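Sample pair:
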Amino acid sequence: MSYLPSDLPRLRTLRTWRAMWVERIDAVEQREEERQQGEERRPPPDWIIELGIGVGARPIEVHVGGCYAAGKRHHAVTRERALAALDDGIRAHIHCPPDIELGVL
């Protein structure tokens, strides 16, 4: 017992429909691959601020961009914002001393 129609015109329609969906799936896969490659090639920001845990968490550390020890809860900031954060008492990370990189004594 076959689930496919027996006449040629309907079989051709199914073939066209299948080809259309395979083409769409291939396009989505290609976009996803290009997006991932773009993320991998994007250089790290110059400065990042790591946030504490919880909703509305406050900044806890300033890092040099690309620091291996920066947590997942961080965002990129400008040089000026990194300096301001250090001035506000947010600590500089000990392993990637952003204070030294920024010229803060």
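Residues 7-42 form one domain.
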